[in-house]
Backbone:
């Protein structure tokens, strides 16, 4: 039922109807091991505030049942907390989705944002706004909430994430005008602006979003009923990675796919025919030369 509900929710998300229910089941952690000599109670307060924000804010205008909430995780590693009250560090963002008719969950996002930089006063409320950038930290949280939603919905329906990608463009545009770090176009190839541009502009974005649907809905979701058919669809979908690489060899889409899917691909092809394993290896090896160990596992398959 979750798959059918996602299609309905994706349609409703395009309508201007009142918000109905919260969408995320988000685990929030903040690691402060790298800093010392300061009162760390602020980070406990911050963790509680972020947890409350991500798990009580309604980001879409549609109804989510409890079992339809998207499982995700935000893991902050704080590297600096200066006298100016600025908190700096990085953020690992992960999200998963269930695979149809199985107990298996698949990783959709496993992304590290190295440009986390914001001010926070202990006890400060985090306020959600659709049309305004209330603060740098809420802009970051909104960005990742909608990225999680966009990728999840794209995995259930072709272009199902459209309304959330549009919201992400708005968030980036508002944040760019603030001059804060992590949002500037061309600041680097893996910041938040680059992520949205990569997914929403040109043939590369179209290819990766089609891959999200074909790989998950037409591939993984079919493997319980027909492993060979589902895996064949996944194999075919991987041509999108070559398309992205040919267009932009340094695209953030390539590293995002690798970080989310390479271990899974090892498992998917563990019992595949040698010809299919070799095809996947030959497709991915020029794109991910540093992934020799895992790619060799794909090529060799499971131990006999």
Residues:
């Amino acid at each position: 039922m979750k798959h059918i509900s996602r299609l309905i929710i994706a349609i409703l998300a395009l309508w201007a109807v009142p918000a109905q229910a919260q969408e995320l089941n988000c685990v929030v952690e903040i690691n402060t091991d790298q800093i010392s000599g300061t009162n760390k109670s602020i980070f406990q307060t911050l963790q509680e505030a972020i947890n409350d924000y991500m798990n009580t804010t309604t980001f879409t205008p549609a109804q989510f049942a409890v079992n339809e909430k998207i499982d995700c995780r935000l893991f902050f590693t704080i590297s600096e907390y200066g006298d100016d009250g600025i908190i700096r560090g990085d953020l690992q963002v992960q999200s998963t989705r269930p695979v149809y008719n199985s107990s298996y969950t698949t990783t959709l996002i496993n992304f590290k944002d190295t440009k986390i930089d914001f001010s926070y006063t202990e006890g400060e409320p985090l306020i959600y706004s659709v049309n305004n950038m209330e603060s740098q930290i809420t802009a970051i949280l909104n960005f990742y909430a909608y990225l999680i939603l966009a990728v999840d919905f794209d995995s259930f329906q072709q272009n199902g994430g459209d309304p959330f990608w549009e919201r992400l463009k708005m968030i980036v545009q508002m944040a760019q005008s603030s001059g804060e770090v992590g949002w500037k176009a061309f600041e680097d190839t893996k910041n938040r602006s680059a992520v949205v541009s990569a997914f929403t502009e040109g043939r590369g974005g179209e290819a990766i979003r089609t891959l999200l649907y074909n790989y998950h809905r037409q591939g993984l979701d079919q493997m319980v009923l027909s492993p060979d058919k589902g895996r064949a669809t996944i194999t075919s979908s991987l041509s999108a990675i070559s398309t992205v690489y040919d267009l932009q060899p340094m695209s953030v889409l390539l590293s995002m796919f690798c970080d989310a899917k390479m271990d899974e691909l090892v498992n998917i092809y563990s019992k595949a025919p040698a010809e299919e394993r070799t095809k996947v290896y030959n497709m991915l090896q020029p794109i991910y030369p540093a992934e020799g160990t895992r790619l060799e596992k794909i090529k060799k398959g499971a131990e006999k």
Observations:
- Residues 11-19 have pLDDT under 50 and may be disordered.
- The chain has eleven helices and four strands.
- Strands lie at 24-31, 70-81, 86-98, 105-119.
- Residues 136-156 form the longest helix (21 residues).
